[in-house]
Design a protein that fits this description.
Elements lengths: L1 H36 L2 H12 L7 H14 L6 E9 L2 E2 L5 E6 L2 E4 L2 E3 L11 E8 L2 H7 L7 E4 L10 H6 L3 H11 L5 E5 L27 E4 L1 H13 L4 E5 L3 E2 L3 E10 L4 E11 L9 H20 L6 E8 L7 H12 L3 E7 L7 E7 L2 H8 L2 H4 L6 E4 L15 E7 L4 H4 L12 H21 L6
Parallel strand pairs: 6-7, 7-8, 8-9, 13-14, 13-15, 15-18, 16-17
Antiparallel strand pairs: 1-12, 2-11, 3-4, 3-10, 5-9, 6-10, 12-14, 16-18
Helix pairs in contact: 1-13, 2-8, 8-13
């Protein structure tokens, strides 16, 4: 009896060792393919420099749809197609202008309209300024706000190593500031850019008027961090100073656009679907190389790598390039709507939307059983300096996705420089490092391979 148990243990250990060796070898093949034969950097070069900014509803967004579809068609996938989605069309108009009027001195400051904002009057808007740091502080001032421009000046917290935590800790003033200030009679809002360094780049981003009447919409813009410091300092010297800004943005009717999808059909379980993706749209100030051109081309590269190493997945693997993450989330919502309509069973979703910097790990939305299983693979990633496996947010585009049992994951690159570029005019191709981009693609392909090989634990 004891001999039988001993032999069984040896047998199982042998199987485990073989699997470990196979996984290590596949990882080597994946990283070699990414670092010696990748196309993601070339794809991103074209998206960024030949097409440029890709705001939803724009001509460039349509060019990006057609380009990425054509590139996926060269990879020998089983299927490549477009998925229709209606998206908002917001137009920035002419370049914004602003200055601080301190007595008779005009000090120009860099601003940009926030996505979805209304325009100022044709000749611009001038008013006194009241500085606040939180929406709660805004509410406490009440009637003192009427007729003024509210200046939201809460910086990103520099103490957090996780910079996305700092971003999450202050983005409410950008998203809801105008809506809340309007309730107290403000005529406009200026928001400190979501950025950890001091510079002259204003950072745009989406904002919402919620359910307030359109007649109560007020113009809102981001001011650069240097501009915010100057305005705050000057306000302390002269609380009666005035601020002028002018913007001519406009919300148009929704237009037709597309998610771009390519897939490799599963050899054993084609009905089980695993997706990898990023968002194809960007803001209009720059070409969006980090946000999220990097995630788009890395996701495309995942399928290219798997094809190149001759890997035949057990489950169906799709790349999904979502449209309209930046100012509406319509692409992710439409993908989930059609997945439900078609009774599709998604078991895994991986998103890259945190920049093209060196990969550090993943965040997972899953139960303990699946998380513990995934963490047991961590040793395979550590030789590649991938060490952070945590529970957390998977991604905005895969957030709407639901299935009976589903694991979601988000690539975690090094984030220390990400908010230097996020939503600003310097988010351009020259900020991308080719090798870091390729390492991210390889890391994503490696996780996709392991998830496909091992499956997921079903919920009780």
């Amino acid at each position: 009896m004891k001999k039988g148990i001993y032999l069984a243990v040896l047998f199982l250990n042998g199987i485990s060792l073989i699997a470990q060796t196979n996984n290590e070898q596949t990882f080597k093949e994946i990283y070699k393919a990414a670092l010696t034969n990748a196309k993601c950097y070339t794809w991103l070069d074209y998206l960024s420099n030949d097409i440029g900014p890709r705001l939803s509803g724009s001509a460039n967004a349509e060019k990006a749809v057609q380009y990425t579809k054509s590139q996926l068609e060269t990879l020998g996938l089983d299927k490549v197609y477009l998925q229709e989605v209606m998206v908002p069309k917001w137009v920035r108009g002419e370049k914004e202008t602003a200055y601080i009027l301190n007595y008779k001195t005009k000090m120009n400051v860099p601003i940009c309209a926030l996505g979805g904002s209304v325009a100022t009057p044709k000749n611009g808007l001038t008013a006194e300024v009241i500085e606040v740091h939180t929406i709660a502080e805004l509410e406490s001032l009440g009637s003192k706000i009427k007729g003024k421009i509210v200046f939201f000046n809460r910086p990103m917290d520099p103490e957090n190593i996780e910079t996305f935590k700092s971003y999450g800790g202050c983005v409410d003033q950008r998203y809801a500031g105008a809506m809340e200030a309007s309730k107290y009679g403000a005529v406009g809002t200026i928001v400190r850019s979501m950025n950890l360094r001091l510079d002259d780049f204003p950072h745009t981003g989406t904002q919402s008027y919620g359910d307030i009447p359109k007649s109560d919409y007020i113009p809102t813009a981001a001011i650069s961090t240097n501009g915010a410091e100057l305005l705050s300092k000057t306000l302390k010297e002269n609380p009666k100073l005035q601020f002028y800004f002018k913007q001519s943005c406009k919300q148009m009717e929704d237009v037709l656009s597309y998610n771009v999808i390519g897939e490799i059909k599963g050899s054993e379980h084609p009905e089980k679907i695993m997706i990898v993706g990023g968002h194809l749209d960007s803001w209009d100030l720059a070409d969006g190389s980090h946000d999220d051109g990097a995630g788009v081309v890395q996701s495309m590269e995942v399928l290219k790598i798997l094809k190149n190493i001759g890997y035949k997945p057990k489950n169906t693997i799709r790349v999904v390039l979502f449209m309209n993450e930046e100012n509406g989330g319509r692409g992710g919502a439409k993908y989930e709507e059609l997945a439900k309509t078609n009774h599709e069973n998604h078991i895994f979703a991986l998103e890259s939307d945190s920049g093209g910097f060196s990969p550090r790990g993943f965040s997972f939305e899953t139960d303990d059983a699946n998380f513990n299983k995934i963490v047991s693979w961590k040793y395979l990633f550590e030789p590649y300096l991938i060490h952070s496996f945590v529970k957390g947010h998977g991604g905005s585009d895969i957030a709407p996705l639901t299935s009976k049992t589903l694991v979601k994951a988000g690539l975690k690159p090094d984030s220390q420089r990400y908010f230097d570029y996020h939503h600003a005019s310097n988010d351009t191709f020259d900020a991308i490092n080719k090798r870091e981009l390729e390492l991210g693609a390889a890391t994503m392909a490696s996780l996709m391979y392991l998830m496909d090989q091992n499956g997921i634990e079903k919920s009780n």
